[in-house]
Amino acid sequence: MNKWQSIIFTLIFSMGVFIGGNQTTVVAEGSDNVGFLTEEGLPPPGANDPSCKPSAEHPEPVVLVPGTFETMERNFINLAPLLKEKGYCVYSLNYGYSGSVPASGPIEDSATELKTFIDNVLNLTGADKVSIVGHSQGGMMPRYYMKNLGGAEKVEDLIGLVPSNHGTEGVAGLTELTSTGADLASCKACQQQATGSDFLLALNEGDETPGDVSYTVVTTRNDEIVVPFTSAFINGEKENVTNVTIQDYYPYDQIEHQNIAQDLLAFNFVFDALEHKGPADPQRAVGIFK
To answer: What pTM did the predictor assign?
Structure first.
């Protein structure tokens, strides 16, 4: 999908013309209950295996959080099996349904769903913490869980692929059209991801990186959804935060917003953050010898 196709695709979503997915609810409780995984629907390959046990090498399960209008199966069809192949226990969820549109409801409610899902994953696996990889809203929404719902104590890494940390001025810079589309589609999450929204102002007030968590952001100069692309960056101490613009390390990679979640070069930063203590080290991630 090229840049303009992606813009059209997103605007169609925003106008409510495309409706897809099935509403699911994360409600399961209990340390040995695996029903919460089947309730999520079709996972990406390699994810939501209830028999997976974290290893000493990879003690934290990886939770994949899709972006606005996305399902886990579509968003992480490439990343999930690669993580599984590397020996991680991989889990993912669908969340935030408004009608039958995924990841479009109020972000506060979505974060509560994420909290329940992570609690269930921890109970199932016996792990103390998870690592989170999220795309777009899925890279920002966990911060609400971590800041307001006690999640900072349960997360080792938060890795955001083009996360909407400081919102967007509008798809392709079209502020009014984007706002109108969000209103027509009743996409509360879209409204909350607008630059200067009450939600984002509250989320980013004070410490943007709570807890003993490593934060990695990977973005692209070609992002036509999170505008400007630098609004994905998160502010924090350098030992805890790495902000990566992919063209600084792979100048010929012209990936844009939607497809960065499928980009093998972007995955190098994800893998580096997961495999080492602290956030990703870009030089190490792109090195020949890793």
So the answer is: 0.87
